[in-house]
Design goal:
The chain is an alpha/beta fold and 310 residues long. The chain has three domains: 83 residues, Arc Repressor Mutant, subunit A, CATH 1.10.10; 110 residues, Periplasmic binding protein-like II (D-Maltodextrin-Binding Protein, domain 2); 107 residues, Periplasmic binding protein-like II (D-Maltodextrin-Binding Protein, domain 2). It has twelve helices and twelve strands. The strands form three sheets. Strands 3, 4, 5, 6, 7, 10, 11 and 12 form an eight-stranded mixed sheet that branches. Strands 1-2 form a two-stranded antiparallel sheet. Strand 1 and strand 2 form a beta hairpin. The C terminus is likely disordered.
Length: 310
């Protein structure tokens, strides 16, 4: 009979397309995890993986085994979680990963309030761009992701967390004062943008493309991985940028940057989303967090709507 450890090793190898990465996640050596898979194949009397120099390919039997192994692991996680709930265990660890805007401006407040209500749950938050958060969910490295743009993936479920708005900001300089740019003027302007893969940049590009703009023609003079760094660069007069309104709130209030309208483009409202891997069992901690968000939906939205209205 195969073991749960062998099943987990096999699933991680398939999902990471690497023996080395799977071994690291299981705190094993590569020879040890290779031995687990060899023993599994000998027990099953069938080859599950084809190994080449550059890739790992599932055999037909391997594909079937992968699908069923995932179901077994999911059932096991659910069983252990149910037992803990019956025993009255209300402790755990919740692994969160958020894209920059929710990670820097929303989640710290929510996590503080959640911790007061659920002191037995240890929280951990990573901050990365939307693309990385989705990959972390696919790899089952985190429980819940918070992202700035919707994605389509068979294993990922999403629901709206809050609404947000992207705005164009400029340095506080006389030629930009009370200025409304045309799309052509925007395309010709020096722009400071987030890196490729960020939710902010995805939404900005989608909005421009919907209005017939070729985003390859944008004059991107600088790419930065931090929204705070972008706002500072705009303050310094290095160019214009598109950022979340909530992230620019303090700089706008203090007169360090100025909001600039873009003619014909309309507003750039978007939603921020909670996301999770539907093939990973939702732990008590994850369910408690999602339930907390549902019960405090109005309060969560006030974090942004209140900022907009101040």
């Amino acid at each position: 009979m195969f073991s749960l450890r062998q099943l987990k090793a096999f699933v991680l190898i398939v999902e990471n397309k690497s023996f080395t990465k799977a071994a690291k996640k299981l705190y094993m050596t590569q020879p040890a995890i290779s031995a687990q898979i060899k023993a599994l194949e000998e027990r099953m009397e069938v080859q599950l993986l084809e190994r080449t120099d550059k890739s790992i390919i599932l055999t037909e039997a391997g594909q079937l085994f992968y699908e069923e192994a995932g179901k077994i692991l999911l059932l096991y996680e659910g069983f252990m979680e149910a037992i803990n709930e019956l025993k009255g265990v209300r402790r755990g660890r919740l692994l969160l990963s958020a894209s920059t805007i929710p990670g820097e401006y929303i989640m710290p407040m929510l996590m503080g309030e959640f911790s007061r209500e659920y002191p037995g749950i240890e929280l951990s938050l990573k901050i990365a761009d939307t693309g990385v958060v989705i990959q972390q969910l696919i790899d089952r490295d985190i429980d819940i992701g918070i992202i700035g743009a919707p994605v389509k993936h068979n294993n990922i479920s999403m629901r709206e967390l809050v609404k947000d708005e992207l705005i164009l900001i400029s340095p506080v300089m006389e030629e930009h004062r009370n200025l409304e740019l045309t799309l052509d003027e925007l395309v010709a302007s020096d722009l400071i943008l987030r890196e490729q893969g960020s939710g902010t940049r995805m939404i900005f590009h989608e909005k421009l493309e919907a209005n017939g703009v070729d985003t390859e023609e944008l004059q991107v003079v600088m790419e930065l991985g931090s929204t705070r760094a972008i706002i500072t660069a705009v303050e310094s007069g290095l160019g214009l940028s598109v950022v979340s309104r909530i992230s620019a709130l303090d700089a706008l209030r203090l007169g360090k940057v100025k909001e600039v309208k873009v003619r014909d483009i309309g507003n750039m409202k978007r939603s921020l989303y909670l996301a999770w891997n539907q093939n990973r069992y939702l732990s008590y901690s994850a369910k408690a967090f999602l339930n907390y968000i549902d019960l405090h939906k109005n309060h969560v939205n006030s974090l942004i709507s209140g900022a907009d209205n101040d």
